[in-house]
Amino acid sequence: MSHIAVTDQPDESKHPHSFITKYIWSQDHKVIAIQYAITAIFVGLVALLLSALMRLQLGFPDRFSFIDPSAYLQFVTMHGMIMVIYLLTALLLGGFGNYLIPLMIGARDMVFPYLNMLSYWTYLLSVVLLLASFFVVGGPTGAGWTLYPPQAILPGTPGADGGIVLMLLSLAIFIVAFTMGGLNYVTTILQARSKGMTLMRMPLTIWGIFIATILGLLAFPALLVSAIMMLLDKVAGTSFFMPALLSLGEQLDYSGGSPILFQHLFWFFGHPEVYIVALPAFGMVSDVLATHARKNIFGYRMMVWAIVAIGGLSFVVWAHHMYVSGMNPYFGFFFATTTLIIAVPTALKVYNWVLTLWRGNIHLTTPMLFAIGFIFTFVHGGLTGLFLGNVVVDLPLSDTYFVVAHFHMVMGVSPIMVLFAAIYHWFPKATGRFLHEGWGKFHFWATFLGTYAVYLPMHYLGFLGVPRRYFAMAGTDFIPESAQTLNASITVSAIIVGVVQLVFIVNLIWSVRHGKAAGNNPWQATTLEWQTEHTPPGHGNWGKTVPVVYRWAYDYSVPGVKEDFIPQNVPNEQLQFTDKQRYEESQQ
Amino acid sequence: MAITIILVLLVLGSIAFHFISPWWFTPIASNWQSIDTTIEITFWVTGFVFVAVNLFLAYAVFRYRFNKDRKADYQPENKKLETWLTLFTTIGIVAMLAPGLYVWGQFVDVPADATEVEAVGQQWHWSFRLPGADGKLGEVDSRLVSDQNPFGINSADPAGQDDILIQRNELVLPLDKPVKVLLRSKDVLHNFAVPQFRVKMDLVPGMVTYLWFTPTREGSFDIMCEELCGVAHFAMRGKVRVTAETEYQQWLAAQPTFAQSQSRYAGDTSQGQALFQVCAACHGAVGEGNSQLNAPALAGQSRWYLKRQLQHYQQGIRGSSEGDVYGAQMVAMANMLRDERNLANVLSFIDSLPPPQPKARQGDLQRGRSLYRNCSYCHGSQAQGIYAMNAPALTSLDGAYLRRQLNYFKQGIRGSHKSDFYGAQMQLMAQSLHGEQDSAAVIAYIASLSADAAISDDATLRSAP
Amino acid sequence: MSVLSRLREKPWLAQPAGMDPALQRARRRWPEHTALMFMLAISTVLFFLFTITFLGRTQLPDFQPLAGMPWQPLTNSVMLWLNTLWLALSGLAMQLSLRQSRRLHKKVGPWLVLATLLVGFFLAGQWLVWQQLLAQGYGLRTNPANSYFYLFTAVHGVHVMAGVIALLRVWWHSRRQPLKLSRSLQLCTTYWHFLLLLWLVLFALLTRSADTYNTLAAMCGF
After folding, report:
1. CA–CA distance from C184 to each of A110, A179, C107 (Å)?
2. In chain B, which residue's Cα lies nearest the Cα of A583?
3. Which fold has domain B264-356?
4. Using 50, 70 and 90 to split pLDDT, how confident is the model at A8?
5. ipTM rounded to 2 decimals
6. pTM metric for this prediction
7. Chain B residues in contact with A359 (beta carbon < 8 A)
8. Which residue of A has its CA nearest to C5?
9. Which CATH superfamily is domain B115-262 in?
10. Which residues is B126 bridged to in the sheet?
11. Subunit contact C42:A305, Cβ cutoff 8 A
């Protein structure tokens, strides 16, 4: 397998020349990253549309004739699955991971560029299969994104024939794609760092991506295992997860399997998945905050330890999704304890972000606004997680809209705030131009306030006890009329937020050609990706030699130094001091 | 600047929303006050952190906004501060976790004097089983489930003979007595949740799960299925009625046991024929129905359904609501069949009649076929009706009658009585038909099914787009 | 330096010019090796999870083990022992080919052909075991134990086939570069030993009696 990252000299003969090798069958990590990002954003828009459709039904029931109970469940399911797997995982790791890893650690490319390319095309195949399920007889599966058997593969659930089979196949292929990409990310981080880039000098973005990828590599097999076994149950009639049961009044051939086993497997993947999304977001937001506040990240070591600790703990909390699943109730004691322990490192991260801003010199640029929006929404989502993690508090709240509101806050809104922050922050590197600042600010305000107007009230529907995944709420004694009014207002806010994203898309497309020129290091950042010779960087990233790293990633506003930032590749000898003594004191 | 103001406003607004929100926990009706207390503690701890962190954030953003004459501080870490923060967070976590685990201990540990009740879930109905005089529930096996034995009780087990079977969506419980609800599912995952009781648990096919509570307030409460169980998940509702002990005993005495349910009088066709003459005046000599008189066909309809409807008329569950003119007529007629044996005889006679063939109807068959997919899960792909799903046959009914009933469901004329659970479910399902055209299409499709029932194929229909 | 002490470094402290330990360290780079280690970890997790579900499934009443009683098909597992032998010998051939390739310019080809052939025997042998089980009426869906037997052997078989493809690729691409070949062969050989180890664990797991399963499951807390 050919790779150029390991040698220090760029291999001229490897540079692609035709359009096809440069932009389609490209092995350049930056092109692959953009391919990943565009595909992920495209399916993300499909999922956004689906969420708007299901919000229409909830807000204005009985008004839209194309939404029947089956269609509603299909919207819910596909919205969830696409957002969690095909958008967030793919965009954060496939998109940002691919783009940033080699640039931030000073490598010329991923260590296995061919494998990297294969990873993207396999991902695309999984997306095609996923979308194909919309066009098979019976439509896509409507089993909820958790795909719980037995109902997922039985009639009575929409898409129980073709839809679920395509879904499982698509997931299996996605996992293969992710594994190819993930092997590349971890190996590149471990083996291709440039000279002087010790682990503790890596920016937190890389730490987040690194640990998240390890989580992914070890957690996705659980999903693969459950997908294979469920596929066999569906297609070959085995009974891994299927007990003896009836379906719509008829006895079926299955016997003896355990549906709970599937749930354990699913959440053994599903919980780390939360952190597969969260950790890269944690990392990227740290870098955005430090850069735009002109201050080092507060408690860098604590931040790294917290990422590692959260990563480790995320494998022993999975059953907090299953407190009311009928599993042995004594498990509740263990999993409630581990779950609440994980809150400690997470809380420390929040404190450190806020303390990074404290005594900073804060530029309220669009990326910074999104980062602040992230802190606010993440605090909200994290705290509501303490309700659900504490086993007995979960009893009245699980399977209600409180859960929906919580995970959208913590896994939907806050990572997406980071994604936007990251796009506004790194877009100038990828294209050489800024995104339009005014439209960016409008985008921020509408998204931030709009999503809060959607999800804050939704928690209260959960307190009331309104169950999730209901096509219609009518006909109960305990849900008052006013809840319907609230649902309508949530729908209106959600649709406004959805439409505003089009402004962002237009901004993206427009700015590629017409945005303000940015130069090599527009934010005056310290990390290596901003120190390239060209913007956007060419194939091989660096000019004649790869950069040598002399310092950590957060030398902002170092006392006694003339500039308020020192790039990682600047040696001490080249520093210009205003007050050398103060500088030396600060280094004690 | 704007961001500071907005952050402060959001914090204040969230607090204000919390206090003025009319959407809050339903008034509790069980012993689980302690769960509410734990939630309150959680609210205080998390609320404090929410306000403190976000106000600090807002202040920091305001205080240290960009100033070209100032340089940011340089502070890689502060061990002391970080230690204190860790400590405070840990204390907060313990303050929430300790009471939580204590209360969970109570939930796991069922009191010895709790009486057992079994709640059986199936797509999309509830039924219940009580242990009967011997205080023991009989053995069950899902392989034994059939139309004659819907609970799948093993008839060889003597403990099962006196089990009391409640084949409807309503459970009655005595006030202030702890109950352990054993949960069993016949088909897929379900969840037994009553918001006012605070507790819930999944039903898992292949195993028995449980939860317990003590009802502390009289009243009727909704049982919601809160685990996605298929298309009609949202329509899988039940009721728990909590009453005083005396009323509970009366109710209990009226419920059949397993042994009784197995030995019902079968009915006599010839005696039924004589009784049927009264019905024939409107419904026709061979029960073929008469659309001039607004009387539906009876021949071809399932016996169990006719029986339930007659009983509903007798009990004022059907035909009593305003606007149901024809139903009101039927109430008087149904009252003539109050005798259990007479009822069985008439039903036996109707059973022996040949099913009529309703006329084909105008309507968009393609659309009808796709709309009917949601109906087919319960009513069957040939609209033949499925007893296990509590769904009557539709094929023998003429279009005018079907349309009228659909409208009744949509307008709340039928299915609004609090004991008409199946009607209430139809009200919800009828929501998926929007407007006259949808109804016409679905009715035309149903009519086309009875015409060529033999031709069309079950498998393709269930998965029709 | 251990991972823990590395994680305690204070990276913000200035390093005196020319004394930065980070710049002194010479780095041994072998990305393929790192990637292989991760791959083995992933496969281990995969089989570990299958095994856990398997042990959970053994505790449900309809599970009938394939071995333990004289009439059960795997009680007398000569065929499986024979297959194990093929796989072990193939590993040995790989080890020998690796030794040859380290003494550069020695013939490696014959040993690789032998290793591939032996692995082919293994796969064919597994296929025969399947046929035999089917002929005796132990179909995929007749019992969960059978389902797991087919599942485990199939997933292991896929791993073996992937190994063969990788080996052929390595040989084709570096047949004229002895140094590169020897490095790649080392990785292949490691993978071969992993396959054998994995198979031994699966073999042991699939041919236990009900009592052993009960003990194992009890240890896992089922």
Report:
1. 19, 21, 16
2. B74
3. Cytochrome Bc1 Complex; Chain D, domain 2 (1.10.760)
4. very low
5. 0.92
6. 0.91
7. 64, 72-73, 75
8. A200
9. Cupredoxins -  blue copper proteins (2.60.40.420)
10. B121
11. no
